[in-house]
């Protein structure tokens, strides 16, 4: 665990609203666990960006509650993906609903996958990371993308979150 990160239930910051425009910090509690040290080499202040992105997504969805963002390496996310989705590979982001009142759930991201995808798409790692945190938080708030209409609504919500964060629309130019 990296200095400055927190264990679940410790070091939580209410609101995480730094840098948000027109945002309310009410009833939002975001914890970040930095489990892979490479995140800081790839993104300046990843914990703060994760909090901002998750908070913006919850604000967009009108959701309230607690979320934990787990910044892991590919191996840890591969294990979670295998255990919970029967897929023996790492993926960029996983969302796990909380299952109890007031706790929306957990979002886990794989450092190597996030970096490779960002490079492959010609995007900044920080922007791709923020998009994936928002994507995971929107899942916890009830969004999905299994069907075309759902996917389009979720993409629009993600674009609004990214605009709120002052970051590029991840869907602009995508086919």
- Structural class given helices, strands, pairing? alpha/beta
**Straight-line distance between termini:** 38 Å
List low-pLDDT spans: 1-25
Order of neighbouring strands in the sheet with most strands: 1-2-3-5-4
Mean pLDDT: 86
Strand content: 15-25%
How would you spell out the order of helices and strands?
EEHHEHEEHHH
Fraction of residues in helix: 40-55%
Gross morphology? globular
Q: How many distinct folded domains?
A: 1
Q: What is the class in the CATH system?
A: Alpha Beta
Total helical elements: 6
Number of strands: 5
Question: What would the CATH topology be?
Answer: Collagenase (Catalytic Domain)
How is the biggest beta sheet arranged?
5 strands, mixed
Describe the structure.
With 175 residues, this protein is of the alpha/beta class. It has one domain: Metalloproteases ("zincins"), catalytic domain (Collagenase (Catalytic Domain)), CATH 3.40.390. The protein is 45% helix and 19% strand. It has six helices and five strands; from the N terminus they run E-E-H-H-E-H-E-E-H-H-H. The chain has helices at 38-42, 46-61, 74-85, 111-121, 125-140, 148-165; strands at residues 13-14, 28-34, 65-72, 93-100, 103-110. A five-stranded mixed β-sheet has the order 1-2-3-5-4, with helices on both faces. A hairpin with a 2-residue loop joins strand 4 and strand 5 (103-110). Helix 2 (46-61) packs across helix 5, helix 2 (46-61) crosses helix 6 (148-165) and helix 5 (125-140) packs across helix 6. The chain is globular and about 30 Å long. Residues 1-25 have low confidence and may be disordered.
